[in-house]
Q: What sequence folds into this?
């Protein structure tokens, strides 16, 4: 994909991609990708949504065509939230936005959904395979005890083995440089049964994105803070997710009064394996909270706007 615009925040340049326009009052839907992906992971879904909505995706800092920060602390969630605010200002000035996040895109977006002033700019939120780290911190405290809750904790820790490895300063980046980058398409085929297009930035995306874990995970899990959402939240749960167990979302209604759960029989990268289902869920949720009649999700392909 070719970026349609660049958004500047400080010394960071964010590559932004757009499908459709905000003409005729079309709602703006902003898609935030996870790790070790770039905005390219949203292409099939964006094409399906473009007939109905103004669709925007961007490469988060350190990924794709966006700038790479020099310091680990530059990957903190508050920095990522400020990047998202800059994208909002550029693509939907003065308007509310419907936000969708997957994996780390979802993890970081919870901050915007639950903190002012950003949460006042979000009309709805769709979270896919990425819980709030603060919510998980409270979940871990509740489950760190003997009994069936303790068993749930052990199962989730088994799924999250890679997080501990990512805290090591050399091992994970070296693994991406030496092997994972060039093997990622084959790994995805084996792990998810999904064929992905080769990305020229895959090795760098994996290597740089490790800093998301190093900058955020332990501080948030060890010292969680209350995070309450006021926007309606749709939770899409892939039931065969290898990394995020459905149990992690227990008690989420305490933090999110207006919550809908939708389960899909899919793996972690359902954006690639089930784009029709994911696009339909997003379209229905946005229509429900955009004050207009529900429509059938678009199937007509659209390319990013040329500028």
A:
């Amino acid at each position: 994909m070719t970026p349609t615009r660049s958004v500047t925040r400080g010394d960071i340049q964010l590559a932004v991609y757009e499908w459709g326009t905000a003409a005729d009052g079309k709602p703006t839907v902003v898609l935030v990708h996870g790790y070790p992906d770039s905005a390219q992971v949203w292409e099939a879904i964006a094409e399906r949504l473009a007939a109905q909505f103004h669709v925007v995706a961007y490469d988060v800092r350190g990924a794709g065509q966006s700038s790479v920060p020099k310091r680990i602390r530059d990957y903190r969630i508050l920095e990522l939230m400020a990047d998202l605010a800059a994208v909002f200002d550029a693509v939907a000035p003065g308007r509310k936005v419907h936000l969708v996040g997957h994996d780390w895109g979802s993890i970081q977006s919870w901050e915007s959904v639950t903190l002012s002033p950003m949460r006042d700019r979000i009309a709805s939120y769709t979270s896919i395979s990425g819980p709030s780290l603060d919510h998980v911190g409270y979940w871990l405290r509740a489950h760190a005890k003997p009994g069936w809750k303790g068993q749930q904790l052990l199962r989730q820790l088994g799924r999250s083995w890679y997080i501990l490895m990512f805290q090591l300063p050399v091992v994970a980046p070296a693994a991406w440089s030496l092997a994972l980058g060039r093997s990622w398409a084959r790994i995805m085929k084996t792990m998810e049964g999904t064929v992905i297009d080769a990305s020229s930035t895959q090795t760098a995306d994996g290597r740089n994105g490790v800093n998301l874990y190093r900058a955020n995970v332990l501080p948030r899990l060890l010292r969680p803070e209350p995070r309450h959402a006021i926007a309606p939240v749709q939770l899409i749960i892939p039931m065969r997710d290898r990394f995020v167990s459905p149990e992690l979302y227990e008690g989420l209604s305490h933090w999110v009064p207006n919550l809908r759960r939708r389960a899909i029989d899919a793996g972690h990268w359902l954006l690639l394996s089930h784009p029709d289902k994911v696009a339909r869920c997003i379209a229905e949720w946005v229509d429900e909270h955009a004050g207009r009649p529900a429509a059938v999700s678009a199937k007509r392909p659209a390319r990013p706007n040329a500028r």
Summary: The CA atoms of residues 30 and 56 lie 5 Å apart. The beta strands are 5-9, 12-19, 28-32, 54-58, 97-102, 122-128, 233-238, 259-264. The two ends are 13 Å apart (CA to CA). The mean pLDDT is 89.
